């Protein structure tokens, strides 16, 4: 083979050349997948920082909570402190405030129930904040392969069309559209796999944090119960 012809064939099948000379449908698909990948990676790094901060806040608060001391002092220390008033700290503040508000005008059991409801609302709010944008990762993970598959089908259809026009199946006729199809498939997987892995990992972290919050709610409820007149009688 002529070296110039071989070099031209290699250049024609290079990734950059195939993308730049692909059909507008394949190029549109690649752009969509690229934007989805950029958005998902942005969310992945943001959620990594958020979950890292949530675990640290939980450890700091639990260390301070179980170190002893009066609940009122702990409340004044935690309230308004961004490093502590997050996660379990937010749940503690909500429950303590509601318990102090209700204990002077309601029965102890009612005050405990009100505190429990306030902590449940605060817990749901914290979990909702942790779950923000996870649905987008799930959508990218599930939809991207099908978007790439559409590009694959379009590339194969183009290859068969070129064969019909040329009346013969040569490498120059078949290779470019088939390569476009494979690029679309790879782009779909490139966008989907990191999003799927991150979604499953962060969803597991949400479940673990939620379980820790629920355990703290039960323990704090027991502490509040021991402070009621009925339990001290």
Automatic annotation (TrEMBL):
Protein name, as recorded: Tol-Pal system protein TolQ
Cross-referenced PANTHER family: PROTEIN TOLQ, TOL-PAL SYSTEM PROTEIN TOLQ
Pfam families recorded: MotA_ExbB (PF01618)
Keywords, in A-Z order: Cell cycle, Cell division, Cell inner membrane, Cell membrane, Membrane, Transmembrane, Transmembrane helix
UniProt subunit comment: The Tol-Pal system is composed of five core proteins: the inner membrane proteins TolA, TolQ and TolR, the periplasmic protein TolB and the outer membrane protein Pal. They form a network linking the inner and outer membranes and the peptidoglycan layer.
Keyword DNA-binding: no
Transmembrane segments: 24-45, 134-157, 177-199
GO biological process: bacteriocin transport; cell division; protein import
Source organism, top-level taxon: Bacteria
Classification via NCBIfam families: tolQ (TIGR02796)
UniProt-listed HAMAP family: TolQ
Record-annotated MotA/TolQ/ExbB proton channel domain positions: 106-214
Functional summary from the UniProt entry: Part of the Tol-Pal system, which plays a role in outer membrane invagination during cell division and is important for maintaining outer membrane integrity.
Primary location class: membrane
Gene Ontology cellular-component terms listed: plasma membrane
Localization terms from the record: Cell inner membrane; Cell membrane
Membrane topology: Multi-pass membrane protein
Family: Belongs to the ExbB/TolQ family.
Species this protein is from: Acidithiobacillus sulfuriphilus
């Amino acid at each position: 083979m002529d070296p110039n012809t071989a070099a031209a064939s290699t250049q024609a099948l290079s990734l950059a050349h195939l993308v730049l000379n692909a059909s507008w449908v394949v190029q549109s698909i690649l752009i969509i997948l690229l934007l989805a990948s950029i958005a998902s990676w942005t969310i992945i790094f943001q959620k990594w920082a958020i979950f890292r901060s949530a675990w640290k806040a939980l450890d700091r608060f639990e260390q301070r909570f179980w170190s002893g001391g009066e609940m009122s002092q702990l409340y004044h220390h935690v309230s308004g402190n961004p490093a502590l008033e997050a996660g379990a700290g937010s749940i503690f503040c909500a429950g303590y405030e509601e318990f102090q508000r209700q204990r002077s005008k309601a029965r102890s059991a009612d005050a405990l129930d009100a505190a429990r409801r306030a902590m449940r609302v605060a817990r749901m709010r914290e979990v909702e904040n942790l779950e923000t944008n996870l649905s987008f990762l799930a959508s990218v993970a599930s939809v991207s392969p099908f978007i790439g598959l559409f590009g694959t089908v379009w590339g194969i259809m183009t290859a068969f069309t070129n064969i019909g026009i040329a009346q013969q199946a040569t490498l120059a006729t078949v290779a470019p559209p088939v390569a476009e199809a494979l690029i679309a498939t790879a782009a779909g997987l490139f966008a989907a796999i990191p999003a799927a892995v991150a979604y499953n990992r962060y969803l597991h972290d949400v479940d673990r944090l939620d379980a820790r919050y629920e355990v703290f709610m039960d323990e704090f409820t027991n502490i509040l119960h021991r402070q009621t007149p009925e339990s001290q009688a």
